[in-house]
Design brief:
3-stranded antiparallel sheet, alpha/beta, about 200 residues, globular, Rossmann fold
Length: about 200
């Protein structure tokens, strides 16, 4: 890890945002580690400092708008757009598909930067990229705070993450934590999947 990554990891630890336990990830996979970015991003000074890394990386790229998937990426995307003086919108899941709501529009030919908080498999980001393409606009890059894949996820556009870590995840069937009978928690809800 470089010095920037170490500083960011210190912030995650200080804000108790790097959790240990048995977690169900958005991707449907299970892990013993979870980055709860919201616990860091609740402090505007940390959000500004962390997002500055992404804004600095893309500052010389020509684009019109920052888009992110709701809900985790909203604070990240809005801050990056603010720092770079760009428009900001977000996509939401409706009937299991990423879509634009609330009057948001993407114009044909518009240049878009896609942002997110945490990437594990990249599923939500790939869906947002597809949404941009469906609107005949152009993706110029992808920026995110945490790359849980340690660089294994490739979006086929210039991409930048503030911190890269390989955090192992498992399918439900191969999860050693499930096999040990350890209760699984869906982060954010702090409830087990059996409703307790």
């Amino acid at each position: 890890m470089n010095s920037t990554e170490n500083k960011i990891l210190e912030i995650f630890n200080k804000t108790e945002a790097l959790l240990s336990g048995h977690f169900l990830l958005t991707s449907g996979r299970h892990s013993d580690k979870y980055f709860q970015c919201a616990k860091v991003l609740q402090y505007p000074q940390y959000n500004e400092a962390i997002c500055k890394n992404i804004a600095d990386y893309f500052k010389d790229y020509e684009f019109d708008t920052v888009i992110c998937p709701a809900i985790g990426g909203i604070v990240v995307g809005q801050e990056i757009a603010r720092q770079l003086g760009k428009r900001f919108i977000f996509a939401e899941r409706e009937n299991n598909n990423m879509t634009l709501r609330r009057g948001f529009r993407i114009a044909p030919g518009e240049k878009i930067l896609v942002c997110e908080d945490v990437v594990t498999t990249g599923g939500s980001v790939f869906e947002v990229i597809d949404l941009v393409k469906q609107n005949e606009a152009n993706v110029v890059g992808v920026g995110f705070i945490v790359d849980r894949s340690n660089g294994k996820v490739n979006f086929s556009y210039p991409q930048y993450s503030v911190i890269k870590m390989e955090v192992i995840s498992y399918s439900k069937e191969e999860c050693p934590l499930c096999k040990k009978g350890i209760e699984v928690v869906k982060p954010g809800s702090r409830k087990s999947l059996d409703g307790k």
